[in-house]
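Quick review question:
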């Protein structure tokens, strides 16, 4: 663990490669000498609450989902936007761990606190391009669940059969319907999105794996899936025709990420500490955070949403830079662009119908859907009469990351990459010349 001391504020950073990174900050009343601790790690709601850390309260969304008309839901959000923390919080809620929700909105809203058995499937750990390895990894996940719920007894042979038998067994043993939570449902498919043949093979395995979520409908109280991309219901989710997609539902626009209101109400002290570190006024630090990390909108009515990973990294590191973009090159994006031969010309304003970007990515004829769902484009405006959305790059971090990182992988393909810029004089506010990097003759 790397530690930094900002005056009397101690910041701790854990392994940043973990999925579902979120913030927890020690409450001021429980600190030694007023020290503030920020830690990063896999989304773990019980650990956060039992440690006495500050929680950005999203529990009202969970209560509303649990009481919606319908029982199966899907949410798409970019990587490291707090999806794993959301799933962990849901698990604690359905397990009836009331003590963890003290002081939250859900504590005030819930009156029954009925306990349900919860089966949680974390697909984020499935990192392979080999079909046999995929089946083996899914088998490992099921074996761990069988150890938990059946004493290690395998109740069927096929992957889908084992999951279906497990759900039925848990329902019979508990005498209650079962909750199934799937984190990063699309992770295995994203590994092979650039290989159509392997993608089809992976898709078939995953479709059979998820079949029980429809076949066991009567045994299920609640099903929730998260992921980055939206794959066609005609493929992986053909059996899940009762799935409600909330990715662009205005009621759930702020379910992940940190809204501007939450930043101001919960992190004012953190902004002041950062401002001191940067030797600027708090208002200046706040504006820089907005320029770099704000700008995400998942519906036309969405509040301003900050990238949580970058925002919290800025507080922990004491500087503002491209943390989210730099935490992992957009290999899925680059591989898909290469495989499909897509051309990207201008992302400053992209006009599109909803069906063009909130759409299955495997059938896309343009990169718009993948760019949007991966967090490189966001909703900027909406013409209700025409039904046309204007998409654009959300903030400085993504803009700089794309301009600096996107061309590099294509150099190996023999493509000409020319960077063109201008010399701008801040004193006279005029352009006094062009800057060209590259070899124009290669064009």
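Suggested answer, residue by residue:
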């Amino acid at each position: 663990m790397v530690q930094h001391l900002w005056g009397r504020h101690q910041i701790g950073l854990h392994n940043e490669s973990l999925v579902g990174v979120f913030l927890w900050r020690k409450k001021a009343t429980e600190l030694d000498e007023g020290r503030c601790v920020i830690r990063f790690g896999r989304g773990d709601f019980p650990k956060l609450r039992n440690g006495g850390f500050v929680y950005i309260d999203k529990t009202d969304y969970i209560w509303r989902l649990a009481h919606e008309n319908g029982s199966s839901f899907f949410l798409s959000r970019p990587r490291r936007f707090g999806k794993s923390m959301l799933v962990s919080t849901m698990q604690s809620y359905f397990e009836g761990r009331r003590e963890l929700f003290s002081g939250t909105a859900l504590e005030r809203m819930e009156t029954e606190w009925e306990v349900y058995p919860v089966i949680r499937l974390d697909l984020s750990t499935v990192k392979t391009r080999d079909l046999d390895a995929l089946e083996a990894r899914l088998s490992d996940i099921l074996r761990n669940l069988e150890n938990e719920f059946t004493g290690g007894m395998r109740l069927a042979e096929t992957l889908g059969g084992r999951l279906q038998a497990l759900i039925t067994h848990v329902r019979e043993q508990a005498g209650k319907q079962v909750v199934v939570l799937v984190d990063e449902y699309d992770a295995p498919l994203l590994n092979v999105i650039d290989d159509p043949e392997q993608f089809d093979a992976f898709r078939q395995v995953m479709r059979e794996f998820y079949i029980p979520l429809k076949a066991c409908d009567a045994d299920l109280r609640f099903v929730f899936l998260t992921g980055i991309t939206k794959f066609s219901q005609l493929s992986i989710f053909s059996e899940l025709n009762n799935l409600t997609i909330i990715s662009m539902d205005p009621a759930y626009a702020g379910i992940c990420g940190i809204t501007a209101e939450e930043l101001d109400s919960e992190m004012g002290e953190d902004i002041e500490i950062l401002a001191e570190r940067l030797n600027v006024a708090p208002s200046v630090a706040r504006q820089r955070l907005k320029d770099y990390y704000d700008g995400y909108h998942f519906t036309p009515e969405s509040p301003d949403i900050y990238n949580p990973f970058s925002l919290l990294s800025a507080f922990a590191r004491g500087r503002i830079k491209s943390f989210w973009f730099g935490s992992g090159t957009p290999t899925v994006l680059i591989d898909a662009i290469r495989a499909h031969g897509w051309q990207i010309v201008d992302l400053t304003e992209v006009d599109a119908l909803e069906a063009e970007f909130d759409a299955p990515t495997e059938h896309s004829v343009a990169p718009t859907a993948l760019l949007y769902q991966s967090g490189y484009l966001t909703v900027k405006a909406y013409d209700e009469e025409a039904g046309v959305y204007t998409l654009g790059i959300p903030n400085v971090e993504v803009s700089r990351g794309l301009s600096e990182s996107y061309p590099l992988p294509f150099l190996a393909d023999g493509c000409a990459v020319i960077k063109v810029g201008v010399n701008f004089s801040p004193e006279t506010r005029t352009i006094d010349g062009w800057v060209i990097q590259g070899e124009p003759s290669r064009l």
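Why it works: Confidence is low (pLDDT under 50) at residues 1-24, 26-36. The first strand starts at residue 2 and ends at 6.
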